[in-house]
Amino acid sequence: MSCELKSKIKSIVEKYSNPSESLIAVLQEVQALVGYISEESVKCITEITGIASSRILGVASFYAGFRLKPIGKYRIMVCMGTACHVNGGERVADTLRRVLGIEAGDITEDGLFSWEEVACLGCCSISPAMMINDTAYGKLTSEKVVEILESIKEQEAQK
Amino acid sequence: MRFLLGYGSCGIASGADFVLEGLNEVLKSTEYSVEKVGCNGLCFAEPIVEIIDDNGNSTLYGRLDKESAKVLAEGVLKGEMPEGNKFTDAELNFLNSQKRIVLSGCGKVNPESIDSYISMGGYNAFRKALEMGSDKIIEEIKASGLRGRGGAGFPTHFKWQSAKNSQSDEKYVVCNADEGDPGAFMDRAVLEGDPHRVLEGMMIAGIAIGAKMGIIYVRAEYPLAVKRLQLAINELREKKLLGKNILNSGFDFDFSIMMGAGAFVCGEETALLASLGGNRGMPVTKPPFPAQKGFRKQPTNINNVETFANVSWIIENGGSSFAEMGTENSKGTKVFALAGRVKRGGLVEVPMGITIEKIVFDICGGIIDDADVKAVQMGGPSGGCIPKDMLSTPIDYESIAKTGAIMGSGGMVVMDENTCMVDMAKFFMDFTSKESCGKCVPCRIGTTRMLEILERIVDGKGTEGDIDTLMELAESIKTGALCGLGNSAPNPVLTTIKYFKDEYLAHINEKKCPAKKCTSLISYTIDEELCKGCSLCSRKCPNNAISGEIKKPFSINSELCIRCGQCIATCKFGAIKIESGVK
Amino acid sequence: MSIVNIFINGKECKADTEKTLLDNILDNGINLPHLCHNKEVESYGGCGLCLVMVEGINKPLRACSTTVNEGMRVTTSTPALEKSRKVSLSLILSDHSGDCKAPCFKACPTHQDIQAYVGLIANGETEEAIKIIKKDNPLPRSIGRVCPHPCEEACRRNHLEGAVSICSLKRFAGDEYSDYIPECAEKNGKKVAVIGGGPAGLSCAYFLLLKGYSVDVFEAEAKAGGMLRYGIPAYRLPKDVLDKEIENISKMGAHFNYNKKLGRDFTIESLKAEYDAVFVATGAWKSSSLRCDGDNALGVIGGIDMLYKVANGEKIDLGKNVAVVGGGNTAIDAVRTAVRLGAENVTLIYRRTESEMPAEKDEIKDAKEEGVNFKFLVAPLNVVTENGKVKGINLQKMELGEPDSSGRRSPVAIDGETEILYCDTIISAIGQQVVSDDVKELELTKKGTVSADEKSFETSIDGVFAAGDVINKGPDIAVRAIAGGKNAARSIDCYLNGIVLTPELPQYAENKEFDADVLCGTEKVDRVKVSLENADVRKNNFKEVASVLTKEEAIKEASRCLECGCASVYDCQLLPLMREYDSWEMNITGKTRQYKKDKSHPFIVRDNNKCILCGLCVRVCNEISHTENLGLFGRGFGTIPMSAFDLPLSESKCVSCGACVNTCPTGALTSRTPTAKNIVLPYLERKYICKGCENACEFTRRTINSKTVKMMPCDLRKSCSVGVFGLVAVENSTDESLISYVKGDLRNFKGDKNALNTLENIEKILK
């Protein structure tokens, strides 16, 4: 277990007077730190707080907001809301599946992209929508999705 | 002169930052600056800027980008109100025909400034409530007839009273801001646009039930709301409106924010409480109700954002003024989030009793491309589809429930002839089955099996008995599921079967999708008359399903076609048609 | 605690306010289905079965999560509640991927408890194994030699390296304990006549004897055994083996009347007057003719006629060249017998190819080794004769056409292509028929067989039953005749006692979507090779070809069993409810979850495929054991209980307290004995005071064959590894490593502090 990770997690846990009750918040911070809820970080939390790993993983696997697998550098969240669906949102997911060649929740081999289906992003008025990291993209078509992905790839290739 | 920029999530997603850049470029050398306000609900025209002149006259501009924002600012500085991007009268009607209580501050108040809220009369109700004391507050709420705006419509005063009656030194007020209905975004707009209104309502509830702690359970997917709530709480603390012995009244109160982690079921009270305790959000049976045994096993009152947002208005204006609006059993206003195939989507707050038709046509301008409306979905995954000929149903809890839908949190998704109702039913069932917590059999397995049947039907593999099996499963899930999510999960299927059975039968018997939506039951063809043979579609097709000779009509190989729609989006001549049924 | 009065289904009852409504209902002796409740842990409300209506509340409540109050009026059953329960149970079934009984059990026509006897053999308890076998099969030694074993077709081990050699294990157990005779019930004073001493007749007699009937067998031949004696050559089934098995039945009290032929020496009607019931199992003894020109020539003989003569010691001259027509087991028996009779050229003629042959693959191989020629894709056109005597057979060449309704490709004649095979004898082994004239008293089918009900085996005459080759579809394999006799005996018993016949088998859950991937990682062990006499030697005599397995071979082979049948089939709480509510009727199906079994722990097997997510294991692990090893993972349909990081139980924090095993309502968590195989059989239960420590906790001790197989503390809170697994370990194993599971983990055990001081005691027990 890396000491660094443990001390970082320790400082997260110490912010909460009752880490058991605040487990979700702790996990949110750990996820922000590590990128996902790794096995190692779960073991750290157990060691520091005494909260059983089975409970931590039970919570982490219950909420859609927690990831038990690493995410890509570009994390694509496709809105699965009603408005997006009515306006053809499933094509966005289909296009990602086709172009990236991965299923929801998986990560591309180069580690660049991962995509997931998420609950309504609340961008109904620009549906269908998706978010890549913190940027929302609206009024999407298959073509537009391809263009967005291409431009990211180009950007990355130039780096 | 004030420049108000709609700076909610949707505004930002639509490019408010570019508008801000444009405005700032022009205004930087002037005395004016841009005020970022919340979303005013005119989502159809984002990004939006409101100009308020020194006389208080307001002019709205929409669909701006950097360039047009610069033109606008330059014009305004010259003392004129440019015509470009100005809202039309019809568009303004969207706003003018509403009655705004919950949304009254949205787009008006600076959500990042408590002074802005106070200058508009904010926290007057709280001061008043401190004087009124618990019983009078609850009496006023009772007089208002306010019912929970989260879905079920339980009378608010009843909950407050029962939490008050529970004996304990430790009680909690919880705001359910885990808005999860796909298609509903009014809570986000209020939290982002007018957070103090919600906090004030919670503080008043705190006085009423004797709670010292308010907890806001808010979706982590609403980072801006979280940020603004935190800011608002900090400001309240600075102003000593939180803490011990607030305003020397002897009342102690403080807030904490807890971010949800993505589980629709946490909108259910007991699941929310489990989640607040750091556990899996699995509902438990009631009783005991949260008012008796809630957070930390102490009496807890849970209301949603919109309910709390009504409270300060009621205390200030009196319960009877609130009760003047609405119908016999449904008082006040209700906020709806209009989305789908409607021309002007956004947030609409109207008095109860108004018809659905009026909202869709008079306020929102009808259907995109003036197509025929087919149905309006209300209540999200727990609700149902109300068909065209029932759109004269007035908005009140009981009338909506009679249609098989529910008021819900106020999502209203408008559907036209291109919406397949079986597909919609499948969509919602997919949603609920994924969001099922997994605890009880009827919901966990029942919704999965219903979804599988619906998937078969839209895939052209439906069989004769499927509708009966769906109904049978639906009834048992309604009876046997543990919580509200499960109990109401079959509603979208039941209402679509009730009102659109023909569509189900077309899928099952004729293997056709009348709305031309279900990809297994449609085929793409090229109209030879219209096709100019430009080959654009052929080049765009991701699966090389389109071929032909330049300047001659092209054709689509049905077997290769994946019905992705790229060709339709590409074709400039409208030559690609969708046909119902598989070739 | 305070006592109030409540009304359950209108009846006034006392209720304890500290208990849930469900516990109060159960305490009052009223049945209310439930699967996720245990009064020791917090209510859950998952299964949704304990729904009740309470007066004044318009929606159903879960009794497990409802408290009682004075005057409460509760209804436990309404049409809507029952419907909801039925749907819930049907839904549970649709996601309960397990086999109550192993596939081999269902595949065997006599439904022998194969898993149990194979397991007993693996554990070295062959004597117990033969007892299990003879519960369902009166002729294990014969059947263990001749059965085409449909059970092995169903064996899941086929997904790996090949089926368990069930048939040879049966023979092993039968040969080992050839004297074993089960005990018969006291004579009940009723008499049944059995006509025909073949497998069906012997079977019916056997099962009637077990039930206390007096049985007289009427046999047309000089000896009993039927086709087993006269149709199956001695090199496959030595006559003394058969004699011994018949003798055993005779010892049970069957009275055999030999050389008594139906129609000649007596009639059904005449027996009816003397007996309470008559069972007809006269078989199918007429060889089907070749149905071509010259088929009545001298030198054309029926397969069964030839085998009969040989078995009966009659002289038979086949000549040098013999052709046998047919592709079934009788054809193989005929060619191999012809070889043994000294024919120089024996050719089997079959109109399809080898892969379509219905005969056993091993038998074909053996025949080839013995020098038999196989001629495929030819069909007899006519018999070539000279002076009315066979000279050869004219054959039409065939090719395979489209598959027919049975899926086999039908042979189609190739125009104009024929050939002649010269031979001295033609044996027609293309099937047998019933001699209808013998059974003309009964109503017959169009085929000339006796028409009998498929389930009750009743014939057109009241009190007369029939089974075996003589009825309906006609000839079939021996084990199916045994099943017919067995079921007819059951039917006769019901008939004579005026009881309505119940289905042969109760309903069981089956894993229809079995995913072979769950077997990956299972160690491959090759199927035992039964040693055969060398072909050059064996082809010259009628001595038995196949030898019996050695004990070592048998144990090794039996240990290959995957134990597909559920260890909880006799104490499952779900199965009786599924039967009561006929969960199969709605036929709800869909995707299922497929998990690998976790067999890492010596006492606990976890099979999440059967998990119904009642949450009890997780709750007891947290609330009773305080181990917090098990948790619920995931959400919705994919939710599953497991240890953190999905560790196998043996590597997890599990303290082996056994609380989960003792609360699981299905076979998702089962206890096992630390023996080669876990034996699943009906059991006995008695109270037992644990001697593990001074607490002297009360247990329910479960035994099978007087060996402890499971220990259940009467108070779930007294779950500890010593009490639950200590005795099981001592009685079933000498493996020292088990001690770590029983004592070592106690150091972490938080359930019962006193138990911590008991290490010495355990060692005492384990010694």
Can you give a write-up of this model?
- The complex is a heterotrimer of chains A (159), B (583) and C (767).
- Chain A has 159 residues and is an alpha+beta fold.
- Chain A has two domains: 3-62; 74-158, 3-Layer(aba) Sandwich (Glutaredoxin), CATH 3.40.30.10.
- Chain A is built from seven helices and four strands, in the order H-H-H-H-E-H-H-E-E-E-H.
- Chain A is elongated and about 50 Å long.
- The model of chain A has no long low-confidence stretch (mean pLDDT 89).
- With 583 residues, chain B is α/β, with parallel strands linked by helices.
- Chain B folds into five domains: 2-96, Glutaredoxin (3-Layer(aba) Sandwich); 116-323, NADH-ubiquinone oxidoreductase 51kDa subunit (Rossmann fold), CATH 3.40.50.11540; 333-416, Ubiquitin-like (UB roll) (Roll), CATH 3.10.20; 421-510, de novo design (two linked rop proteins) (Up-down Bundle); 519-580, Alpha-Beta Plaits.
- Chain B contains 22 helices and 18 strands.
- Chain B has helices spanning 9-13, 16-27, 66-77, 89-96, 114-119, 124-144, 156-165, 186-193, 195-209, 223-238, 269-276, 305-317, 319-324, 356-363, 397-403, 421-435, 441-458, 466-480, 484-488, 491-510, 536-540, 566-570; strands at 2-6, 34-37, 49-52, 58-61, 172-177, 213-219, 243-246, 251-260, 300-304, 333-340, 346-351, 373-378, 384-387, 411-416, 522-526, 546-547, 555-556, 576-580.
- In chain B, the strands form five sheets. In chain B, strands 7-8-6-5-9 form a five-stranded mixed β-sheet, with helices on both faces. A five-stranded mixed β-sheet of chain B has the order 11-10-14-12-13.
- The radius of gyration of chain B is 26 Å and the shape is globular.
- The model of chain B has no long low-confidence stretch (mean pLDDT 92).
- Chain C is an alpha/beta fold and 767 residues long.
- Chain C is built from 23 helices and 27 strands.
- In chain C, helix 4 (114-122) crosses helix 8 (166-176) and helix 6 runs antiparallel to helix 8.
- The longest helix of chain C is centred in the middle third of the chain and has 20 residues, at 478-497.
- Chain C is elongated and about 105 Å long.
- Chains in contact: A-B, A-C, B-C.
- The interface between A and B is large, with 46 and 60 residues.
